[in-house]
Amino acid sequence: MPTTASTALPLKDVTASDSTLRRFLHGLPGVDAVGLEARAASLGTRSIKTTAKAYAIDLAISMVDLTTLEGADTPGKVRSLGAKAVRPDPTDRTAPATAAVCVYPDMVAVAKEAVAGSTVKVASVATAFPAGRAAVGVKLADVRDAVDAGADEIDMVIDRGAFLAGHYLKVYEEIVAVKEICGTSARLKVIFETGELSTYDNIRRASWLGMIAGADFIKTSTGKVAVNATPANTLLMLEAVRDFRAQTGVQVGVKPAGGIRTTKDAVKFLVVVNETVGEDWLDNHWFRFGASSLLNDLLMQRQKLATGRYSGPDYVTVD
To answer: To bridge 167 with a disulfide, which of 162, 192, 248, 269 should be the other Cys (CB 3.0-4.6 Å)?
Structure first.
């Protein structure tokens, strides 16, 4: 069984200095953008039969990080979200629970209470989400608050400005510091905001940088910018975790987030996972969807398969 992420010892020497880290990251193979997008598009045309579709829907539900990250979030809204995560379809106890609920740090305690006794984890965004524009001390305090409140998972954002300026060691050290606060009590998801990284080469570099620093998951996006998760950037990140495990023996999860709204979208992503990294990642310990509206469509499609009728959105609780 692959180990969970930690600083990968075989790659430790590449972080000795900014120059060695830059040399390693820029020495990664360049991405064939045309080939990557063609591969992602071809996988998206695969069709699955009814039995397989039922399995895929339940698997996708179990992989959802049900999320509310709004300034208007209230304890009542978070409790409602937690109840929905634990029992997505109140009329059908066979519907699986979601993987997690994701909230701001000040709502972690409320979310923990709402999902107590269930398998649902509580994730919290941190490090001045979503922009990441704050002093390091402020970012680390943000993480510490969430962990102290009982967060099972931390979703941090990298300093995209530092990354794009080539200050890779600064980004690496920040991830390492966050990982240290997480300790053994919280898994760390590192968000790249792929829509702001401009190139596929940068996404590959960010993926390796995050994994070397100890990410348990690498995540595409905050969901707060124009370009979020796509089949192509998720495929690229899946290739990165596959190659990282081959080199280090360490398995890292992947979380596409933002813009995944329909069952058809989710199934496409699951096909990409299966064809790129295989069954080892087809589990919510290693693959997640950062979404909220997606769950409603998955539940409607699930009801249709079970009853032969499409109930419509009014019969599914709205986030």
So the answer is: 162
